[in-house]
Amino acid sequence: MVQILLGLLAVLLVYYLFYFIRDLVAERKNLGGGNWLVAGLIGLVTDAMDTLGIGSFAPTTMLLETTKQLDNDRQLPGTLNVSHTVPVIIEAFIFITVVKVAPLTLFSLVIAAIVGSYIGSKTVSKLPEKKVQFYMGIALIVTAALMALKQLGLLDLLGTGNHLTGLTGSKLIIGIIGNFILGALMTIGVGLYAPCMALVYMLGLSPLVAFPIMMASCAGLMPVAGTNFIKSGDYSRKVSLGITIGGIIGVIIATRFVTGLNMNVLTWIVIVVVLYSGFTYIRKGKQAFAGNLKKS
């Protein structure tokens, strides 16, 4: 079943690249704003962090906001999903082949995340810009809180003493439902890593098992979500391509050279800035809810 999953990820990669390359060629004279070098550096740094388990969505959002790479905030969810798809698939292949996980558990949770992302991306792509800003702010704060809990060791405590490598019965059903929800939430910028790790811990699996599950989940859902954003045009083409190229290099570097680095201080810096960005987006998007209250 693991080989089937690897084959599925390979097929999804080809499926995604077909639409991504076709769109870039068709719109080669309209790639949008942004800077190639800045986008590439963002991809290199964030996907190196992603390989180390920190996650890429929150720091990418922080850096895109800081460097003003996007033409408008509506492009953010699509750019996040499109730009990190290829690097994450590379990560998934590495972890799936190294860490032992019960095939049924791995396959079921990954498929659930893929279905969740498909439904979520279709919903998010139709949201007005102000609502996207508001929900992105909420997503960033949730992500930062989970990252902080992980840094404090509170999420790790949930997995202390866990040795299971697979789920059965009601726990498997809960895991499937949980990863379906996380897959949908990822399309509005809630990074799947930290909540997936918490879910895995609470269900009694070994903490190490979280890595192939969360990597494969993202690798499975991101080509689907990314393709939907590509079809709707709700992403930055130049920035996404730059982050993709830089991200591939970042994954290779992190895997081979920097897996032993202490990322504690850097992670806390990211948490603080992500919280700031989250409240900034909420402030920008609260007009949407104010408008709804007036209508009601």
The value of Rg in angstroms is 18 Å
User: Order of SSEs, N→C?
Assistant: HHHHHHHHHHHHH
Rounded mean pLDDT is: 85
Percent helix, as a range, is over 70%
**Which residue ranges are poorly predicted, with pLDDT under 50 across at least 5 consecutive positions?**
none
End-to-end C-alpha gap: 52 Å
Number of helices: 13
Domain module count? 1
Give the strand tally: 0
Give the biggest beta sheet: none
What does the overall shape look like?
globular
Content-based structural category: mainly alpha
Q: What portion of the residues fall into strands of 2 or more residues?
A: under 5%
Describe this structure in words.
The chain crosses the membrane at residues 6-25, 37-58, 101-120, 132-152, 172-194, 200-227, 239-259, 265-282. This protein is mainly alpha-helical. It has one domain (2-290). It has helices at 2-26, 36-51, 57-67, 76-83, 85-98, 103-124, 129-151, 154-158, 169-186, 193-202, 210-232, 237-256, 264-295. Helix 1 (2-26) packs antiparallel against helix 5 and helix 7 (129-151) packs antiparallel against helix 13. The longest helix has 32 residues, at 264-295. The chain is globular and about 50 Å long. The mean pLDDT is 85.
Provide tags for this entry.
296 residues, mainly alpha, 13 helices, cell membrane, transmembrane, membrane, TM_pro_TauE-like, transmembrane helix
